[in-house]
């Protein structure tokens, strides 16, 4: 479904990501793991054509269903984003306009991608919120972002991202701003979305425990390059570099037992 072929990403002619390659199949979950500044978010922003600050893919290619995303026109990007490919941000609440109610934003988003009445778009928004286990969807649609908890805002972001049942979901540290209990709920819901819709997911995280729990493929990055890449069992069983070993050792143990 998605094939990233040996890409290099530069900002002002300085390479930030170098020689990055990976392949994601339908209904697979891949985690990009590494310390801050390792290039994880840059990779998924390149996939969605949202590199900030003049960033450019200067080498390699990104193929989605066999077609190069790097050749997309602005109109092709508008049609692709939010439908076949969606993104969940680190703090979905921060991406919402604080002066507009959730329902107004949700309805506008749906009607941007589909010819549908406001009332039908409103009903679909409520249905998606309730699918994300948010009670009283109509009340949430009438709420402002600041009236919701962090976990609720994140579920709103996931509900919007999944409205059109995307083939590929990009998640930029979707659990880092949440408490541990809510993190676990969000992770489980993302896995349920994969099972229900067959969505392929790339999740950016610094938490190797989260990656170990939910991923089929783990890619460990450092300084813009891949340190290790492979299926979960291979990476966790010892077939990895010294850097990955340090990340594994940094995962807290419970009662002397380490769960990765």
Describe what you observe in this structure.
This protein is α/β, with parallel strands linked by helices and 260 residues long. The protein is built from 11 helices and 10 strands. The strands form 2 sheets. The protein has a 6-stranded mixed β-sheet, with helices on both faces. It has a 4-stranded antiparallel β-sheet with strand order 2-1-4-5, covered by helices on one side. The mean pLDDT is 87.
Topology:
Elements: E1 2-11, E2 14-24, E3 29-33, H1 40-47, E4 56-64, E5 67-68, H2 74-80, E6 85-88, H3 92-95, H4 102-113, H5 118-131, H6 137-141, H7 150-161, E7 168-172, H8 180-197, E8 200-205, H9 208-214, E9 217-222, E10 225-231, H10 232-236, H11 242-250
Parallel strand pairs: 3-8, 3-9, 6-7, 7-8
Antiparallel strand pairs: 1-2, 1-4, 4-5, 9-10
Helix pairs in contact: 4-5, 5-7, 7-8
């Amino acid at each position: 479904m998605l094939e990233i072929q040996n890409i290099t990403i530069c900002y002002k002619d300085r390479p930030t990501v170098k020689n990055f390659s990976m392949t994601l199949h339908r209904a697979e979950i891949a985690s990009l793991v590494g310390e801050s500044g390792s290039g994880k978010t840059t990779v998924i922003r390149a996939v969605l054509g949202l590199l900030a600050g003049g960033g450019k893919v200067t080498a390699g290619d990104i193929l989605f269903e066999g077609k190069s995303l790097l050749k997309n026109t602005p109109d092709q990007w508008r049609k692709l984003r939010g439908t076949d490919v969606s993104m969940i941000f680190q703090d979905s609440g921060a991406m919402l306009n604080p002066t507009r109610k959730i329902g107004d934003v949700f309805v506008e988003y749906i009607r941007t991608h589909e010819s549908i009445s406001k009332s039908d778009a409103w009903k679909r928004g409520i249905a998606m919120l309730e699918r994300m286990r948010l009670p009283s969807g109509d009340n949430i649609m009438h709420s402002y972002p600041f009236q919701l908890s962090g976990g609720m805002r994140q579920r709103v972001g996931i509900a919007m991202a999944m409205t059109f049942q995307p083939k590929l979901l990009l998640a930029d540290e979707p659990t880092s701003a949440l408490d541990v209990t809510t993190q676990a709920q969000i992770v489980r819901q993302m896995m349920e979305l994969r099972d229900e819709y067959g969505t392929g997911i790339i999740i950016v995280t610094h938490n190797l425990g989260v990656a170990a729990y939910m991923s089929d493929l783990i890619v460990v990055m450092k300084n813009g390059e891949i340190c290790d890449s492979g299926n979960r069992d291979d990476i966790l069983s010892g077939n990895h570099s010294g850097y990955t070993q340090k990340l594994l050792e940094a995962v807290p143990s419970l009662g002397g037992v380490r769960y990765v």
